[in-house]
Amino acid sequence: MMSVVLEQIFQVGFLAAIIRIATPLAFATLGEMFSERAGVLNLGIEGIMLLSAMTGFTATSLSGSLWLGVLAAVLTGMLMGALHALFTVALGLSQHVCGIGVTLFSSGLAYFLYRLIFGQQSVPPSIKGFATLPIPVLSDIPVLGPAVFNQFALVYMAMLAIPLAAFVLYRTPWGLSVRMVGENPRAADSAGVSVIATRFQAVILGGALMGLAGAFLSMAQFNAFTFGVVSGRGWVAIALVVFGRWDPWRSAGAALLFAFVDALQLRMQASGLGHIPYEAFLMLPFIFTIVAMAFMSRNAVAPSALLKPFRREER
Amino acid sequence: MPPPLIEMRGITKSFGAVRANEAIDLQVAPGEILGLLGENGAGKTTLMNVLFGAYAPDAGEILIEGRPVTINSSADALAAGIGMVHQHFHLAPRLSVLENLLIGIPGKSGRIDRAGGLARLGEIGRQHGLTLDPDLPVAALSVGEQQRLEIVKALFRGARLLILDEPTAVLAPSEIDGLFAALRSMAAQGLGIIFISHKLNEVRALTHRCVVLRHGRVAGRVDTPANTTSSEMARLMCGHEIVPPARGPSTPGAAVLTIESISTSRHSGMALRDVSLFVRAGEILGIAGVSGNGQRALAEVISGVLAPDAGRMTIAGKAVSQFSPRAVQALGLGRIPEDRMTTGLVTNLPLADSMVLPRIGTAAFSNKGLLRPDAIRAFAEAQIKAYDIRCPGPMTRAGALSGGNLQKALLARELAFDPKVLIVSQPTRGLDIGAARFIHEKFLDMRAKGCGIIVIGEDLEELLMLCDRIAVMYEGRIAGTLDSADATIARLGLMMTGAGQAEEAA
Predict the structure, then answer these.
(1) In the predicted model, is pLDDT for residue B503 greater than 60?
(2) How high is the pLDDT of residue A272?
(3) How many domains does chain B have?
(4) Could you tell me if B431 and B198 are in contact, meaning their C-beta atoms sit under 8 angstroms apart?
(5) Which of A36, A169, A176, A196 would you mutate first to test chain B, the one with the most B CBs within 10 A?
(6) Which residues numbered 61-90 in B keep a CB inside 8 Å of some CB on A?
(7) Is residue B182 in a domain?
(8) Terminal-to-terminal C-alpha distance of chain B
């Protein structure tokens, strides 16, 4: 069995699969990370991804333009992010309750609008999704080239998003404001930084990234919208943020690690270890997440002001 | 004559029916240190919040160098050159010193201006002797260094007027000297400083002039604080004479609490190393020391919260075999913890519940596993009356009470059960003169009744006034014990820095 597994790992297809699986997780994890660094837990992520997958798919299906679809998904994410921020930042309501509410609302809306637009069809409608876009020269590198540099445009965007997120968070004044409002909003406030505006911006940026995650699922990975298109990836992203200790590089690394286990279990399902029910393999990445979390979250320190609404007059 | 750096004219601010500030005039000239005195609730903080833009005044105006300005936010205040060092620091512990300085400062071509920040930090450090390591996380700084960072932060933003809200409350005596030196240097270079405090000796030592507030109004102005007696200023603050309670002689009885060679290993603060001490009936023992030298561990061991690794403890002659709060309480220990709001009581529950919490399972307050709400309420009502705790009633949310009233409630809940030993940490931290006076009198009453009291504190004057003996803690050990007749602030201060040990040995 071990040899079967090892054989699978060192295949171009396997490496490419890891990158593909990691992409929506990376977007979602970075999105959740920005939100949480500013002090706002966004449990709406699962629903935001689903609704964005739906709007992206629909926009592309109706207009024929993939990038218009991506734009629709991003705008959807931003809108739902703004909604979550309205409840939790402007009104200071419970982030847990509102996040679950946003997920339930977004999911319901996604199903509803999808039925309204496409009706009930025997064969679910599909689109011609993103095609792979080999990068000249780089894609010719043996093994690594075809795995990493022969991917969808959105995959490259995710690769760029990671260093960009780190730069924004650690090197720009806005990123410092985000970290400060997540650690001690009063300190930011007394330094003349608007806590409310910064949190809104971070949650909306987070929503945009969650929208990209949704767009990838329905427009590059499955090329169709189904109700199970997200299937827990949002929840996983929340765990990966903790696993990645609220850092862009570590979070992306966590997404990659999860993707590795997921790709591995897919191969194991296919590789004819037939007597084991496939559901057992399906569980693997989640068991991995739980075990990894149990070990890693012991020293993980969340942003101090996470979950705490900011009201200026309170002392 | 140049116009004052800052002038507040006729500032009035009400909250509902409460006049927090009424027609207050105040000026600070460049190079001047102004003391702002007043009891808790006199309106000092409100006035400064008006100046710093947190509240808009109902009437009155603020002038900077003779020009009227409107300050609607802390950003406006910063732009006007006003910097404030709050009592509770506004710092993010996990970010670096430099990051805490650069927050809210526009970057250079989209990036954080690290080089510019470092240069400015170095410049301020040289000017006023306020040096800090830029890349250290704030959590790694001592309280004194964090305060220094807050001052640097204000200067970094170009403050010409610096407001400090009770800055010495958190400092050790040696750190206070350093702070005063820095403030004098800043004033000498033309900055204006408003120093808020209710410690009269500090105001007299530092300020050039002071304004005393009472009930939201200016109760008096003192032009030569150094030549004005503390009791005169106290009279302005309180509206009546304040006489410190006199500690009469007492003849201590047998030891009611003994600790022999107690050591602890794991503790979030400083652990204890081979600590022995005792307190006798009718005696007050003070524990002095710079915070973080094992006082918390000592309080936790005595209160039964922390079990020591080695050593013995007796209460009223009986050995403590089991370290739990309930067990030591049953032996006759009363405890008033350091932090009223977090370990003292439950802020979101009614006051009555907090007042019976340590004894919730006893027959006085429960019967066959069920609470006796009437008994709880009656107990709370009786204590509220006996201790004059100002609150709407026993069912008021505990967190809504002022610090002084909370401390009275905590004292009431212990003293009602006639403890043989009482351990108190920071008994009057944050309390005004009147409330502190009340607490002190109660301690002396208990001493007269034969209770042994241990007071852990950082305010040496308070310890000298209250205690019969004072032990000094340094790095988890008892550095020495002095009879209060032999103790002076200078001598205790020396022992607190570890220097006293050499003296003891000599």
Answers:
(1) no
(2) 67
(3) 2
(4) no
(5) A176
(6) 73-75, 78-79, 84, 86, 89-90
(7) yes
(8) 59
Domain A7-119+135-296 has CATH 1.10.3470: yes
Domain region containing B450? 255-332+419-505
CATH code assigned at B153 = 3.40.50.300
CA distances from B157 to A141, B75, B176 (A): 52, 10, 24
* pTM of the predicted protein model: 0.81
Residue B444: the pLDDT is 93
Shared domain for B141 and B283, answered yes or no, is no
The dihedral region occupied by B91, where left means phi > 0, alpha psi between -120 and 50, and beta the remainder, is beta
Burial class for A118, CB neighbours closer than 10 Å (0-12, 13-18, 19+): middle
Question: H-helix or E-strand containing B473?
Answer: strand B469-474
Place of tokens 């002396």: B444
Q: Closest to A180 (Cβ–Cβ): which among B89, B95, B157?
A: B95
Read off the pLDDT of residues A14-39 as tens digits, 9 standing for 90 and up: 899 999 999 999 999 999 999 999 99
In a domain, B488, yes or no: yes
- Note the pLDDT tens digit of each residue in A197-212: 999 999 999 999 999 9
Residues in chain B: 506
**Tokens (6 digits) for B288:** 């002095």
State which residue of chain B sits closest to A180, comparing Cα positions.
B92
Q: Where are the domains of chain A?
A: 7-119+135-296
What angle, rounded to 10 degrees, do the helices at A233-243 and A195-216 form?
130
**For A173, which of B54, B100, B106 is closest by C-beta distance?**
B106
Interchain contact, B103 vs A177, CB within 8 Å: yes
Sort out which chain A residues have CB atoms less than 8 A from B74's CB and list them.
189-192
Evaluate whether residue B360 is within a structural domain.
no
pLDDT, tens only, A158-191: 999 999 999 999 999 999 999 999 999 999 988 8
Taken in order B106, B109, B111, B114, the sign of the CA dihedral is negative
Burial group, residue A157, by CB count within 10 angstroms (0-12, 13-18, 19+): middle
- So what's the ipTM on this one? 0.86
Distance CA A133, CA A149 (A): 8
| pLDDT per residue as tens digits for the range A67-99 | 999 999 999 999 999 999 999 999 999 999 999
Cβ proximity of B38 and B237 under 8 Å:
yes
Chain B interface includes A198 (CB < 8 A): no
Domain limit, last residue, from B171, B205, B238: B238
Note whether B206 and B110 are same-domain residues: yes
Dist CA B477 CA B72 (whole Å): 51
User: Both tokens of residue B414?
Assistant: 């212990």
| Residues of chain B found within 8 Å of residue A179, distances taken between Cβ atoms | 92, 95, 99
Pairing mode, strands B255-263 and B275-280: antiparallel
A284-303 residues touching B, CB cutoff 8 A? 301
pLDDT tens, B410-445? 999 999 989 999 999 988 887 877 888 889 999 999
Q: Which amino acid is at B207?
A: T
B477-483: strand order across its sheet: B333-336, B421-425, B452-456, B283-288, B469-474, B477-483
- Contact B75/A192, CB-based, under 8 Å? yes
Query: Which residue in the block uniquely carries the two structure tokens 């806590």?
Result: A195
Residue B107 near residue A175, CB atoms below 8 Å: no
Chain segment B461-470, per-residue pLDDT in tens: 889 999 999 9
How far apart CA B177 and CA B186 sit, in angstroms, is 14
| B210 in the same domain as B131 | yes
Whether B273 and B182 share a structural domain: no
In a domain, B351, yes or no: no
CB distance from A304 to chain B under 8 Å? yes
**B425 with B254: CB under 8 angstroms?**
no
